[in-house]
Design brief:
Layout: E1 2-6, H1 10-21, E2 25-29, H2 33-40, H3 51-60, E3 64-67, E4 79-82, H4 97-109, E5 114-118, H5 126-141, E6 147-151, H6 161-166, E7 171-174, H7 178-188, E8 198-201, H8 203-234, H9 238-246, H10 267-280, H11 286-298, H12 301-309, E9 318-322, H13 337-347, E10 351-355, H14 360-367, E11 372-373, H15 377-380, E12 386-389, H16 401-407, E13 412-415, H17 422-427, E14 431-433
Parallel strand pairs: 1-2, 1-4, 2-3, 4-5, 5-6, 7-8, 9-10, 9-12, 10-11, 12-13, 13-14
Helix pairs in contact: 1-3, 4-5, 8-10, 8-11, 10-11
Length: 438
């Protein structure tokens, strides 16, 4: 089966590599000539465990191809997946210009039946816009060619996208026709042979499922952060609270970890877009709005603790940051808490020294010389007045605290991910702050 995937970001590149791994003939398309040339040479633009090896293997075996021209492969494929970016517009709504550009390109060059599949996260109603755009281009050409539009939202977690795609807990597909349903069934069946978990819906429901899922997960995070903040005031331990409520099967334990806020390419963008979609339909989603507000406030929680500890006197102090990416196992810093913390520390007159296992280059691109770049975790804390842990990388879990306390100017640790045991940190001689624990 031959397919094309437009967009070579996280979703597009991972989808292309995984479909190729299962035997499909995949052409990945991107307008960025430099990126395409790099991919042809085996240079992967993003960090994702296992992705480089999978891409190189499928390129070598002739199942995965890269081009800047959709028209060059359009009439050899049965389906076109749109996996282009949908960045938030100034008003919070999803910017659909790239999605509709793909639709125009399809309408201008298609010559036979196609299923045009939206993989990007898009608001409810986008499929209708795509269909109208393709039809408009066909009319300009004086052509009447049948096609179907489908919605196939992704549920990949950065850091484990390969596993998530190859062994999905569910695949959601919104279709309008039996023809499209059969094609999508054929495409996904190899991934789900033992337990076929494709959920077929109408297209608007598929578009809504993605936003609803991310909003629910974001809500759980913000809820636990609110509970954590209250725990600190009343002397409770949020970890014990999490275990207590997570053991209730109606609630479950996932996404109940308190911390210093969520980030990334999905939750912040999708929560904003859902709020905007509701506003466009004269509905105020107060709960979802609160989720966003709580999260933005939580991103500064460690800075507030730091300021309080030093009695609002941060000028000239050296602060070390462990972790820059929004989560472990990725170099993605979109909406990362680290960016907020760096800005706050910089405004307060601090010297900032940072370390992250993979996101240092991304930080240089985003932040430049605003911070000093350490060579490892121990170099990062030399002469530091405080250490802030922002990302839960595995290599941060068992450091030599004896070495660290000797290197630091002051033994102050602010743990934004509750990675360490408070009593052990106190016994090691540190002044230790975490989230929601006494």
């Amino acid at each position: 089966m031959k397919i094309a995937i437009v967009g070579t970001g996280y979703v597009g590149l991972v989808s292309g590599a995984c479909f190729a791994e299962m035997g499909a003939d995949v052409t990945c398309v991107d307008i960025d000539q430099k990126k395409i040339e790099s991919l042809k040479q085996g240079i992967i633009p993003i960090y994702e465990p296992g992705l480089e090896e999978m891409v190189m293997r499928n390129v070598r075996e002739g199942r995965l191809h890269f081009t800047t021209s959709l028209s060059s492969c359009l009439n050899e494929v049965e389906a076109v997946f749109s996996a282009v970016g949908t960045p938030p517009d100034e008003d919070g709504s999803a910017d659909l210009r790239y999605v509709l550009d793909v639709a125009r390109e399809v309408g201008r060059h298609m010559e036979h039946y196609l299923v045009v599949v939206t993989k990007s996260t898009v608001p409810v109603g986008t499929a209708k816009l795509i269909k109208a755009t393709i039809n408009e281009e066909l009319e300009k050409r004086g052509k009447r060619i049948e096609f179907d539009v489908a919605s196939n939202p992704e549920f990949l977690k950065e850091g484990s996208t390969i596993k998530d795609f190859m062994s999905p807990d569910r695949v959601v597909v919104g279709v309008e026709s039996e023809h499209a349903r059969k094609l999508m069934t054929r495409l996904y069946k190899p991934f789900l042979l033992n337990n076929f978990r494709v959920i077929f819906t109408d297209i608007p429901s598929a578009e809504m499922i993605k936003y609803a899922a991310n909003a629910m997960l974001a809500t759980r995070i913000s809820f636990m952060n609110e509970i954590a903040n209250l725990c600190e005031l009343v002397g409770a331990d949020v970890n014990m609270v999490r275990k207590g409520i997570g053991s209730d099967t109606r609630i479950g334990s996932k996404f109940l970890y308190a911390g210093c806020g969520y980030g990334g390419s999905c939750f912040p963008k999708d929560v904003k877009a859902l709020i905007k979609t509701a506003q466009q339909n004269n509905l105020e989603m107060r709960l979802v709005q609160a989720v966003e507000e709580v999260n933005e406030r939580q991103k500064a929680v460690l800075f507030r603790k730091l300021s309080k500890h030093f009695k609002n006197n941060l000028q000239g102090r050296t602060i070390s940051l462990w972790g820059l990416s929004f989560k472990a196992e990725t170099d993605d810093m979109r909406e990362a808490t680290s960016l907020i913390i760096i800005d706050l520390l910089h405004e307060a007159g601090c010297h900032i020294r940072v370390f992250d296992p993979v996101a240092m280059n991304e930080c240089r691109r985003r932040v430049g010389n605003k911070v000093e770049y350490a060579t490892d975790i121990y170099n990062a804390v030399e002469g530091a007045d405080a250490l802030m842990l922002l990302t839960e990388w595995k290599q941060f879990r068992l450091p030599s605290w004896e070495r660290i306390i000797k290197a630091m100017a002051q033994p102050v640790v602010l743990d934004g991910r509750n990675l360490y045991d408070p009593e052990e940190m106190r016994q090691a001689g540190f002044i230790y702050y975490s989230i929601g624990r006494p």
